[in-house]
Amino acid sequence: MSTQPKREDLVAAPSRFPLREVLLFAALMLAVLGVYAAMGAAYSTRMLVEAACYAILALGLTIQWGYGGQFNAGVMGFVALGGFCAMLFSVPINDAFWGTELPGELGRVLLYAIAATLVVIGVTRLDRLGVPKTLRTVIAVVVGLILYLVVISLLREVTGEIESRAGFIGGFGLPAWVGWIVGGALAGGVGYFIGHICLGLRSDYLAIATLGIAEIIKAFLKNSDWLTRGTATVSPLPWPTPGPSEVGFTLARALYLSMTAVVIAVLFFLLHRAYHAPWGRMIRAIRDNEVAAAAMGKDINRRRLEIFVLGCILMGLGGGMLTSFNSLFDPNGYLPLNHTFLVLVMVILGGPGNNLGTIFGAVAVYIIWIMSGPMALWLMQLIVTFGEGAFGWDAPSNMDSRALQARVLVIGVLITAVLRFAPKGLLPEKIRHHD
Amino acid sequence: MNELVFFINNVVVAGSVSGSIYAIGAVGVTLIFSIMRFAHFAHADVMTFGALMVLLLSTAFPAAGASIGIPTALIMLPLAMVLTAALAVGIDKVFYKPLRAHGVKPIVMVIGSLGVTLILQGLIRLFAGTGGQSLYVDDRKEIFRLALPFEDVRVPVVITEPQLYLFVITLVAVIALHLFLNRSRLGKAMRAMSDNPELAQASGINTNLIVAVTWVIAGGLAAIAGTLLSLDVTFKPDLSFFLLLPIFAAAIVGGVGHPYGAIAGGFVVGFAESLAVFNWNILLRPFRDSFPAWLELPTDLAFVSTEYKIVVPFFILVAILIWRPTGLFKGKVI
Amino acid sequence: MPLLEARDVHGGYGSMNILNGVNMTLEADEVGVIVGPNGAGKSTMLKAIFGQLHVNQGEILLLGEPIHNLPPNKLVQRGMGFIPQEKNIFPSLSVQENLEMGAFLKPHNVKRMLAQVYDFFPPLYEKRRQPAGELSGGQRQMVAMGRALMAEPSLLLLDEPTAGLSPLYMNDIFDRVKEINAAGVGILMVEQNAKQALAIADKGFVLAAGQNRFTDTGEALLADPEVAKSFLGG
User: Per the UniProt record, which residue ranges are transmembrane (chain A) (predicted)?
Assistant: First the structure.
């Protein structure tokens, strides 16, 4: 039968010389050197830092998709949360806000919100006092709606006041890494909420819910001007490493790169340990045969939730580092294409479930992605020049923005092609068979 | 009374309009789900493609409608439906069928459909740009103002011409779908395959044929939904994910795999959206004088402002997944 | 020419073979019964005949023509009908729609065959508008058989038709099978209730470990002390 040679390929003899890995990484190294030669050190280092941040996002997704078989279609949302926290914690304190009575007002509304929540929870317990269940539900819904309207009206008042008098609440003036950690935690919290609802159900539901939460997070960040300045954007964001003004562009970026490299190395080591620990084996057992794992008494939903939350934490962390590096918080800059689907391509092309493959995929795809912009424009220019010369064709004026749309197309083609022709990626997960 | 008319315009009419559109889209999603067992994430862009076809055809023959007296876009709709159905069948042949043949998990099909949605987005925006365009290329949008026969009502009920067409077309589509599923041999075979695919095959039903028929119906309906949406407002090439969430929410609320449930779910989501963004202060205005002095209502009493409209289908989705994951009408596929 | 002939059939899932050389011959007017211990490959053999399992080696002939590895819908066209053990109805379709699906490839026959099936299973006529999922176990089995008969098969494959039914219904099902056979339909069924099944069998096939252990008439197998000792529980 034809399955025999295919299986041979999957069996990874531990002592085998990793020819494939060495070749692929050597090629990647060459590509990086090529970019350095062509585009200069400052540009290329920036590209590498961004690629490193993307590698963290990709590690988050490879945990969820590769280890756990869970598909997260809303990486963008978790990235944006991380970016928001990085901004909130690192930006200097805004005295126009903190020096007035506004923080107290805001705190009061938050207290009201907590009180309202407690009241609603209390009302849902009314059936213990002998109130019929249907009546209890009706009361709870009505009370909930009214209290919600009260709180949201108060909040609108206060936030309107903040916007007109102080612009936005500003930051906490803390080091950026505090924001990254909190961003990871916040992303993990949202992931817990989503995962708790969806992980026991069909896997499609998780994809739908994450897609939705990502758009909601973006809408919230975009429209809460009092918190984020909305479309007015916040910049600059301070770095935890010396900035370009102190040591120059290339060195500053190189320092930032070393920091991200350390973070990746630590994550890589921890994930490697976890993957080969009993916990990792259990996760894979659940992914490969849910029924058998359940029959052996594994708490499937709990393990799934752990894996999903862990992935979301990494996405929040990576999102924070990426946003800090760009030194700009722009809610409109978070796009499904750049922050969800690009990461997806990195993971499925590199090798879902294989950390090394994922990092390779992240750097390789990011280089292609960054280079595709100038190349597409150049190609478009060529076509336009050729069209004008040969047929007197009057090209549409918005050629540039249309060339960018071509990237959407390319990512789509890549996803479908990889799924069909290389479903295990370039560096497949090493699964040992015991037969 | 004026306030009530305002309520009708902003909630009843607007809710039925978006409800109809969501319903038609959700029926397609739920049919695909029941036959191929995966959530088709490219559906919103298939809808956009249908509307784009109408736009291109209407631009090519702008005067076609005037001779009969209905908007050109509606004359072009059947042709656009055929084209969109062909596109859907083609997408299946090129992208989904090879994956099915490999026997992949449904979630891989979902990722594949996300790839397809990006391809469609890229192509549509490459040709149509990203700006909005009116589907009324050469016609005028009629607006009907129905004054109510009461003394003190000054505000009329407003319904536009495309909205009337929308209600009629939705009704026709639903009835046609009902007849197809319950009376025709292929429709019954579709339900049979949704019930028990192995037995359908063992009965000699050609499953490839049923899959193709499903794509034809889903594609045709998507063209209708996309066109009606674009007629009501304008043709927007970049709605994609904003359209996808309410449609999936509608399909899940109705019970996945349950076409009538999807229709009901579409209206549930549509009305919930319009109720949530409605400013309730308007309805309370007539009673303002009888309120106690200490109660000063804020001028904006909407549950969510329009920018957060997407929260509504998400909230419905979360609520249904927590309390009744099979949907209101007990879907077959969980 | 025999209705069905299997020669040295090997097959299974992936690279694991479950069938290791099964031989069978069934004439057009016969009832064949496959018995054997659990895991002997009984249902697998039925699936191999009905094209749901890849045959690696050997051949299966229907009226002299090779049919192995043809898709099920082609086999239905050639006059084969299959009733799976579980999930053998369309639960949300009405009884009548279930039957109509059986005649999907022969739509012009529907009216005539519906009348015949209702004649054969009168309880189904009364419940024809009810969703089949609401019926009792025995009635569901009737729907399943009726659906398969709608295509006017020349060979009917049944996978444990009496599994999970009370003894009363069990005898009824065996009577029905005999009646169907008397109307000119060849029958091949897998059965756990080996004694009762062999009693109505013209041919019996005792499988073990994916191979024929005994092949004879039903009567002879029942009389064989060795068969009785090893496979019929003494």
Answer: 21-42, 48-67, 74-94, 106-126, 138-156, 168-193, 205-221, 254-275, 307-328, 334-351, 363-384, 404-422
Q: What is the mean pLDDT of residues A353-371?
A: 91
pTM of the model: 0.89
Which of A216-220, A402-406, C201-205 is the least confident region? A402-406
Output the six-digit token pair for B207: 């499953």
Residues of chain C with Cβ-Cβ distance to A3 below 8 Å are: 14-15
Closest-approach residue (CA) in chain C for A4: C15
Tokens of A420: 């069909």
* Chain A hits for C56, Cβ within 8 Å: 1
Residue A369's pLDDT is 87
From first CA to last CA, the distance across chain A in angstroms is 16
Looking up residue B63, the CATH number of its domain turns out to be 1.10.3470
A223/B106 Cβ within 8 A: no
Residue A274 lies in a domain: yes
Total of domains in chain A: 2
Q: Is A294 touching B (CB cutoff 8 A)?
A: no
pLDDT band for position C233 (50/70/90)? low
Which of B43, B119, B326 to mutate to test binding with chain A, by most A CBs within 10 Å of its CB? B119
Evaluate whether A346 touches A54 at the Cβ level (below 8 Å): yes
Measured between beta carbons, which residues in chain C are less than 8 angstroms from residue B332? Answer: 92
- Selected from 3.10.560.10, 3.40.50.300, 3.20.20.70, 3.40.630.30, the CATH number assigned to the domain covering C1-70+153-161+191-234 reads 3.40.50.300
Scanning every residue of chain C, which has its alpha carbon at the shortest distance from the alpha carbon of A1? C15
Share of residues in chain A with pLDDT > 90 (%): 46
Amino acid A314: pLDDT: 96
- What's the mean pLDDT when you consider all of chain C? 88
Distance from CA of A344 to the nearest CA of B (A): 9
Interfacial A residues in 202-261 facing C (CB < 8 Å): none
Identify whether residues A260 and A145 lie together within a single domain: no
Inspect the interface and report whether the beta carbons of C105 and B204 lie closer than 8 Å.
Answer: yes
Low-confidence ranges of chain B (pLDDT < 50): 334
pLDDT in tens, A161-207: 898 888 888 889 899 999 999 999 999 999 999 999 998 888 889 99
ipTM of the complex: 0.90
pLDDT band for position A353 (cuts 50, 70, 90): confident
Residues in chain C within 8 Å Cβ distance of A1: 14-15, 56
Last residue of a domain, one of A107, A133, A167: A167
Nearest residue in A to B303, CA atom:
A149
Q: Residue C119 has what pLDDT?
A: 92
CB of A1 less than 8 A from some CB of C: yes
**Which residues on C lie below 8 Å from A4 (Cβ)?**
15
Q: Give A10's pLDDT tier (boundaries 50, 70, 90).
A: very low
Q: Is C179 buried (19+), middle (13-18) or exposed (0-12) by CB count in 10 A?
A: exposed
- What is the least distance, in Å, from the CA of C172 to any CA of chain B? 24
